[in-house]
Amino acid sequence: MDPAREPATMTAPTRAPGAAAGISLRGVSLTFRGARTTHVLDRVDLEVRPREVIALIGPNGCGKSTLLRVLAGLIKADGGTLAIDGQPILGPDPRVGLVFQEPRLLGWRSAESNVRFPMELAGWPKQRQQARADDLLGLVGLREYARARPGTLSGGTRQRVSIARALALEPSLLLLDEPFSALDALTRERFNVELLRLWERTGTTIILVTHSIPEAVFLADRVVVMSPRPARVIADIAVEMPRPRRLVDLDSALVASLAADVRSHLVDTTDDEIAMEEARRAIPAGLTPKDRQARNLPETDPGTPAWFDPFRPEDEP
Ligand SMILES: Nc1ncnc2c1ncn2[C@@H]1O[C@H](COP(=O)(O)OP(=O)(O)O)[C@@H](O)[C@H]1O
Ligand SMILES: [Mg+2]
Q1: What is the distance of C-alpha 265 from the center of its chain?
Q2: What percent of the chain has pLDDT over 90?
Q3: Is the distance from the beta carbon of residue 65 to the nearest atom of ligand 1 less than 6 Å?
Q4: What is the pTM of this model?
Q5: Whose CA is nearest to atom 4 of ligand 1?
Q6: What residue spans in the chain does CATH classification 3.40.50.300 cover?
Q7: How many helices (H) and strands (E) does the chain have?
Q8: Which residues of the chain have pLDDT under 50?
Q9: Which of helix, strand or coil describes residue 74?
């Protein structure tokens, strides 16, 4: 066996590192009991095939982040079963990588050293840490920022570092909790394309929480809609759109009809964040010519979505 592909830690369940995993949630329930009792998850069932990309969408506060934390083994469900490739999730699990909405990087460490951090904790030899961190920074296009401290990087760049860090131990499942919500609409669209390229290369299974219906449809194989709290799965919509996908696909009739389908399941929920996302998406069409120039957008008729080259490198600070 290639030594670079050994399991991350001795405690890791047997698996081929980096191989995508199938996920099974059966009747997962959770109630927070403290000063207030909050019933958050209500018999959540979800089967995910290896390499599938699932977008989770649901009203604010319904329990999406809680579900991801349960999947990452950070909180224990009080009912039901969760398994990755048939092996139960019993605690913080090296088979799972987690990315939060706000990149939670260590400010005193460089980008490279942040990416290395999980490998240090896992006791990897230094040389292997360095080689892996170098690969990952290359994968997210940040090799030249290896020595930069997070405080000197843009929000988008910091988020790339945290995605690289989440991939450090070759997880089989990558969980992304509204990873692009803090980015402006244009950067966000580019990151969607980048995420798909990353997924093509790493081949992990992905579960992503988003408030953006078009983003969910664009990225996912299936859009799973959650009810208001306590969260249940109320719809599971297959997105049969060929890959690789391009931003222009967002304008297709298929995306529009799938988005309408997703939205129809959310009609009973008044959700400010989903409404905000819809409003933000409308911004590119309403930009002034000067704004268009500043953002390097082609001059198109007002109202026509204006896409630009998604592979253009980000303007770094
Ligand atoms: N550790 C906790 N203790 C008690 N209540 C919590 C805890 N974490 C989340 N909650 C509550 O659980 C509900 C779901 O939260 P969350 O999963 O963050 O929602 P979402 O991500 O869908 O917006 C909210 O009412 C939240 O206040
Ligand atoms: Mg959340």
Answers
A1: 22
A2: 63
A3: yes
A4: 0.82
A5: 32
A6: 22-95+171-317
A7: 9, 10
A8: 1-15, 283, 285, 296-317
A9: coil
